[in-house]
Design brief:
alpha/beta; 7-stranded mixed beta sheet; about 30% strand; globular
Length: about 400
């Protein structure tokens, strides 16, 4: 679904990525519009170094790229899909690709920031990590404004801004959106402490070959301080023999599933895939912590692992994969949707060789067995408990 957002500098046609005519979710919300209105009404000078963090689909970046000719913003995102949406939306609105600078959360941040705009993420840890990393570039004259829907901004959110950057207050709500105003303070910036991420811990005893081994989590990865119960259940019911084939840990998160496969079958080629740059960094660190001799297929000779930031299995050749392991998300930011799972399943069917298998773990109530039967023509229950199911689907023909 594409639609038009009105901002002080014009109207912008925007869409999420990948664009799906059936998708009824917009590529912007009231918090994006509120922030853009405030910047214009307050006369905020946008001719300096403007940095936009966490812009979900490029709405802020696209509008700001037209607000001050020759001074396009720098966008920092953890999402491959958000980055591609930004590229597409810039083109859709006639903005040259080189008018903005697109960085990921794994890139070196700018060395000076005059205006810092933060779309509050769902993950408080990711916000903490990014504020810490950007703080050295912030000065006492930096304009710092956060934005989000009322339900996304909590007391803990404001405390982070205060603890890392300086005194913080909020605006009145408009259309269920709110702004955060932070005044950088030199003493606070100096005393903020070290970046607490990445975070490592040992896995519990009921995780098979991974028991007692280390997992590494960069900020923003799902369940960063503990192993989520769905993945724990999946680890107890993984395929017993991968036959030394090509295995994809799809939506890999911190990479524990793919690492378990690599430990169980040293001959397997494991590909870790996620749309989060932080997740893929976590997966690579987890894998290396447990197989220090391992390399990437593009790096160390004889390596059996590859780490890919991308849109699921897009770009994988048809019939090039033997096994896909998947714990799909069922949220897109604040919206509950099965669209991501359906795309993952469809991509798996295309990428799998005939006879190749997709193994999925999910909450019982999500009804993935119905979706798998529709896409693969079959679905088998491998294991279940009161909350989760592990399902197996086979690519036929």
């Amino acid at each position: 679904m594409s639609d038009r957002m009105t901002a002080p500098w014009g109207e912008y046609t925007l869409a999420r990525f990948p664009e799906d005519p059936r998708d009824q979710l917009r590529a912007w919300d009231a918090s994006d519009a509120y922030l853009l209105r405030h910047l214009a009404e307050s006369g905020t000078v946008l001719d300096g170094a403007v940095v936009v963090v966490g812009d979900r689909w490029g709405a802020l970046t696209t509008a700001l790229a037209t607000a001050s000719a020759g001074h396009g913003p720098t966008q920092i995102t953890d999402s491959f899909l958000s980055r591609e949406a930004t590229r597409a939306n810039l083109g859709r609105n006639g903005v040259a690709a080189d008018a903005v600078r697109l960085l990921t959360t794994r890139d070196t941040p700018p060395d000076r920031i005059d205006v810092l705009l933060v779309r509050v993420p769902k993950s408080l840890a990711l916000l903490e990590d990014q504020l810490h990393r950007l703080a050295p570039a912030v000065h006492e004259g930096t304009v710092v404004i956060g934005t989000g829907m009322v339900k996304e901004i909590h007391t803990s959110t404001l405390r982070l801004f205060e603890r890392i950057l300086g005194p913080t207050r909020t605006s009145l709500a408009q259309q269920k959106a709110r702004l955060i105003f932070c005044t950088p303070d030199a003493a606070v910036l100096k005393a903020r402490g070290a970046v607490p991420w990445p975070y490592s811990y040992q896995l519990p005893d009921d995780t098979g070959l991974l028991a007692g081994r280390s997992v590494v989590n960069h900020a923003g990865v799902f369940c960063a301080d503990r192993l989520d119960i769905g993945t724990r259940f999946f680890l107890r019911h993984l395929p017993g023999d991968t036959g030394g084939g090509r295995v994809v840990d799809l939506g890999c998160g911190n990479g524990v599933v793919g690492t378990a496969v690599a430990l169980a079958d040293p001959d397997a080629e494991v590909v870790f895939v996620d749309e989060s740059y932080q997740a893929v960094a976590s997966a690579e660190d987890t894998y290396r912590a447990n197989r220090p001799g391992g390399g990437t297929t593009e790096g160390t000779a004889g390596g059996k692992a590859e780490f890919v930031v991308g849109d699921g299995l897009e770009g994988f050749a048809a019939g090039s994969v033997d096994l896909v392991l998947n714990n799909p998300p069922f949220h897109s930011h604040q919206a509950t949707t099965d669209a991501t799972a359906r795309r993952m399943f469809t991509g798996a069917r295309r990428a799998l060789r005939p006879g190749g298998e997709l193994w999925v773990v999910g909450n019982r109530h999500l009804g993935y067995h119905v979706t798998l039967r529709r896409i693969f023509g079959n679905s088998e229950l491998v294991a279940s408990d009161a909350k989760f199911v592990v399902l197996r689907a086979v690519r036929q023909g």
